[in-house]
């Protein structure tokens, strides 16, 4: 039976490290990479007896911002719960999370033309990190524990099973990343572990409504890996079912090296974690006026910004997506256009040249090119010098003597010299070989030290050769 006879059904659980200065329940820095292993910890995140957690207000605010951006209903009353399980990277023997009263429920996210329902958004603490690989000091049989990451604020966004392809799962995760960056809750860099996408995958016969047995995919560290892992798991489940077997509900890891999923452990249910209310933290009351203020203060969201960039700046869909997914690049485009540069030219230059200039200097540089004071090659040289020195592009042009020669009389003299020096190229052109103009223009450029306005020179050269 072909793969097309089966329908994949995919729900997503996405964990996002929040961009707060300190951890979720203590004053330790949330920058867990800045210190040596276990150098950024305290009695609270080490889970030592007798210490009490204090909730991070900034983390709560960021979760609410994300929730209202996802059109969720924010709870007026919420609480924290203990999720009990044993693992070496969990020093307390439980994780402070949320269970039956999450911060938000019932939102949605538009992914392409499909609306994906959001089940819940809740707040918890991250775990530590296990290092399994051996090195010069430790054998391959040893596992090391670094608790610098333990206690970092973590937001979890859970979707309904509304996705039906590996590509859709990837696009959903990318759309979430762009949204989180836009509202300023996280950098959401997947390769740095700031965003972790876990897919719940099942398959069913086309036309059926009942859900199949699902597996949860973990150990995924890029959007490309997410797509590959989901695609592989869909094919694996279809093969199992077509051979008369049964899919087992379990957690499966993704091996990037082997391009396959593998069994990690049986899938736990909620009762396995023995959730109960966190006794050391009071319930939270989220004032409706405060929530409304955060909703009204939201910036322009990615889907709306992409649409605006296409209509206002005449960008293609792919270029609009490139800018929207990078807030710094997007800001540079908008501010450079506001400084007087043409939108399409600005967008192309930013994509190609990745300038580090401020918007005023970049707008000045692009005007110099547009006005034919310098050509594009000279523009790149001016950009490099302006970035290194901090000088305005116009000052750089004058200092380096890069202004284009557009004077027709001066260029005509150079063209006569080139024609006299390259009779074969002239003969080739007159014989119908249009590419010969390139060699002659190259000679004009060389004789003028790269300062010739090649647009003007090309016109003059063709006129002269046609005589």
Task: Report what the structure shows.
This protein has 3 domains: 3-290, no CATH class; 300-400, no CATH class; 408-465, Arc Repressor Mutant, subunit A (Orthogonal Bundle). The chain is built from 15 helices and 16 strands. It has helices spanning 57-69, 166-183, 223-242, 288-296, 302-312, 317-324, 327-338, 343-353, 359-370, 376-389, 393-400, 408-421, 423-430, 436-447, 454-465, and strands at residues 6-17, 73-74, 77-78, 81-84, 94-97, 104-111, 114-125, 129-131, 144-146, 153-159, 195-205, 215-218, 250-255, 260-266, 276-277, 284-285. The strands form 4 sheets. Strands 2-6-7-10-1-11-12-13-14 form a 9-stranded mixed beta sheet. Strands 5-4-15 form a 3-stranded antiparallel beta sheet, with no helix packed on it. A two-stranded antiparallel sheet has the order 3-16. It is elongated and about 90 Å long. Residues 331-465 form the Asn/Gln amidotransferase domain. It comes from Candidatus Dormiibacter inghamiae.
